[in-house]
Write a structure and sequence with these properties.
This protein is of the alpha+beta class. Helix content is 34%, strand content 36%. The protein has six helices and six strands, in the order αααββαββββαα.
Length: 163
Amino acid sequence: MQSSYVNNYPKALDSLASQPLGTHQTITGFMRIFNRIQHGELAKIVHENYTEQLYFNDTFRTITDRNELVDYLQQTGQQVDWLEAQVQDVARGEHDFYVRWIMRLQFTVMGKQVNSESIGISQLRFNKQGQIIFHQDFWDGVDGFYQHLPIIGYLLRKIREKL
């Protein structure tokens, strides 16, 4: 995949062809990653479920290389006390699956333990081997993460109150 896809959702979406899939089995692999983010087998699970060249955007970061994705997810796993994701619903479009999920996580900021719950949707596109070639998350990072940070969180809550 060309680096010009970084931060270019429409271009990546148009350029990455999907393959028809008959079942939701691939969704299970996708969810295994986020429920095993602190597990020693994370790299193996990512390699099984994502293509080498891909488009991944979780609103924090855009990644186009599977090994970089492994590093990013391992770093995420090290920064949280625990994380679990539960699928609420799966919808299928012509080319993509849309997975509605709830993610619960616990992390520590400046010595304070924070419990966070976030609702989101992941748009997934698969190749003919059932691996993810396109992964775009849609969720509110302010609600799920930033509001819990000192200073930034206070400012964001005040802005929301005024809206």
